[in-house]
Specification:
heterodimer; A: alpha+beta; Arc Repressor Mutant, subunit A; 15 helices; about 20% strand; elongated; B: mainly alpha; two-stranded antiparallel sheet; about 35% helix
């Protein structure tokens, strides 16, 4: 960021819950491809149809609120948010206003080596809209569309909106928050949280101000951000754009902007100038929600270990923070890691093998981590072979990758590939003696205090042993025998 | 008690095209309603429990169960315009 400036960022995140049925009717929430085949009088807003809330969705939002350290309002109300748009069948969206289900939370986020806390203003329950397809010369762009087609399959899918405080200060923090929120939602199992399909979507509110300014600058709201990478890019773009406008004497308009992935720019949505007035009022069709302490506690008891706790546990078993994050983010790796460490394998070595060697190997071949033949038992055996001096660290990596490819257990592979190290000191000692006898000049130098020839002698012994001697044993013997 | 109300704005927000006569008539009617509300506001309510909802009930829920949806052919043909199984509407943003 340009020196002298500070960015103030808040994120609004929409998460579609993965309930079986919609929020207020019994149509499937897992929507079919064929348009308008998951619709009923309620989600099409036919006159007289009445909404009935899905209990499972309420449990889902309470889970999210608890995982984000929110207070859960025992009494909470549904409101109508009134606006006209073709994808909104009722001309209002059932949402919440005052008294959302969850308020006043926070989520700790790691950004590089630092940890920041992002405040959560509120988490509220609402329903998704239908899907518009803009048809025309512009290839789906709304401004060039000739007409628009509407599919109401998605209308009424349970949607949770998570609003942060304006606590975020950089594009990197925005991305880190987005990633952590996605992990939490996935861990809770309440949504598939896919940015690419829109089951999780971010809107970024960005403003800038000169460092030292007390008042907030005018903000823009950027939509259509459909990956964590584009979240970071879009926020960075907005910050730079706003600073440039302000430095050249212009002013920022409060407006909605559209992130364009291909051009890497945000553009104004050119919506109408009039300010939005949603005329929120309590939905008379819906009763108040009452999340009793008993119900809240019952829901709390179903919350699994959260990603931050999982990572801390991994760090405690010996891996660094980055490795812990990679492991925890990949289910196939985390289960192998946990099982191997549980069975006594050293966390550090297993963590490096999995996130470094195994991931690198599988990615090179465009393979699937879920389909590898490596088991936790293999990792345990491999670690104990290295520990016992039977495998060199480089041989261990060869064995590891062969196990990934399904060549068998580490001991079978090591035997088949003739990689077992000799740590029998008798055999090694004979080789050491032979090498020392042939290299008296080197021995004399070492005895005289020059340690350099040790490396040369090591190499000679290893060659004598066909590369299969335990280097630790060789080194010890050489030191012992050349010690004056 | 005069109540300030921008009836033209309210009509616009509700997408209602009202004539000047209608605007004047509804303006009077809405003002009367709001004045009545003001009278209620002025009543002494100390010791009265706030009511957020007229029904003495909470949590009317539905189990998360999928039931049969409407056959598309039963509702789509009622739309003014359709295409490929979808509702078809004019372009959304005007010039």
């Amino acid at each position: 960021m340009k020196p002298g400036w500070e960015a103030v960022i808040g994120l609004e995140t929409h998460v579609e819950l993965n309930t079986k049925s919609k929020m207020f009717c019994s149509c499937p929430a897992d929507i079919p491809d064929e348009p308008n085949t998951a619709c009923c009088p309620v989600c099409l807003a036919l006159p007289g149809a009445l909404p009935v809330p899905n209990e499972k969705a309420i449990e889902g939002i309470v889970k999210i609120g608890l995982a984000l350290n929110c207070e859960i309002n025992q009494s909470s109300l549904f409101y109508r948010k009134n606006y006209f748009y073709p994808d909104l069948p009722k001309n209002y969206q059932i949402s919440q206003y005052t008294f959302p289900v969850c308020e006043h939370g926070s989520v700790p986020v790691d950004v590089g080596d630092e940890s920041v806390t992002v405040g959560i203003t509120r988490v509220h329950m609402e329903e998704d809209t239908g899907k518009s397809t803009h048809v025309g010369e512009g290839g789906g762009r709304i401004h060039d569309a000739d007409h628009t087609l509407l599919d109401f399959n998605r209308a009424g899918v349970p949607l949770v909106e998570i609003v942060t405080e304006p606590d975020i200060r950089s594009p990197e923090e925005a991305r880190a928050y987005g990633a952590e929120l996605q992990r939490i939602v996935l861990a809770l199992g309440v949504s598939d949280a896919k940015l690419e399909t829109g089951s999780m979507r971010f809107d970024a509110n960005v403003s800038v101000r000169r460092i030292g300014d007390e008042t907030l600058g005018t903000r823009s709201e950027t939509k259509n951000v459909n990956s964590l990478r584009s979240l970071q890019r879009a926020v960075a773009y907005e910050i730079e754009r706003q600073i440039q406008v302000l430095e050249s004497g212009g002013s920022i308009h409060q407006e909605t902007r559209h992130w364009n992935e291909d051009s890497g720019e945000t553009t104004s949505m050119r919506t109408k100038e009039e300010s939005e007035d949603y005329r929120y009022f309590q939905d008379p069709d819906l009763l108040p929600l009452d999340v009793s302490p008993e119900w809240r506690n019952a829901i709390a008891s179903t919350i699994p270990e959260l990603p931050a706790v999982q990572r801390a546990r991994y760090v405690a078993s010996g891996v660094d923070a980055k490795t812990a994050e990679l492991l925890a983010d990949t289910a196939a790796l985390s289960s192998l890691f946990e099982e191997a460490v549980e069975a006594g394998a050293p966390g550090r070595a297993v963590g490096i093998w999995l996130t470094g060697d195994v991931v690198g190997h599988v990615r090179r071949d465009d393979g699937d981590l879920d389909a590898i033949s490596l088991t936790a038992a293999h990792l345990v055996e491999l670690a104990s072979m290295v520990d016992g001096g039977k495998l060199s660290s480089s041989a261990a990596k060869e064995v590891l990758l062969a196990a990934v490819e399904g060549e068998g257990s580490p001991s079978e592979i090591a035997a088949a590939r003739d990689l077992i190290q000799v740590s029998d000191s008798g055999a090694i000692e004979a080789a050491v003696d032979a090498v020392l006898a042939e290299n008296q000049d080197a021995v004399e130098k070492i005895m005289a205090g020059d340690a350099k020839p040790i490396g040369f002698l090591m190499g000679q012994v290893m060659r004598e042993m066909g590369g299969k001697a335990d280097p630790n044993v060789v080194r010890e013997l050489l030191h012992a025998k050349t010690n004056p | 008690m005069p109540v300030d109300i921008d009836i033209a704005k309210v009509a616009k927000l509700a997408r209602l095209a009202l004539s000047d006569e209608e605007l004047a008539a509804y303006s009077t009617q809405l003002e009367n309603i709001l004045e009545n509300a003001e009278r209620v506001q002025a009543l002494p309510t100390d010791g009265v429990e706030p009511t957020s909802h007229p029904l003495p009930m909470v949590n009317a829920f539905r189990d998360d169960v999928v039931e049969e949806c409407l056959d598309r052919d039963s509702f789509l043909p009622s739309a003014p315009d359709t295409q490929d199984g979808q509702f078809r509407v004019p372009r959304i943003l005007g010039e």
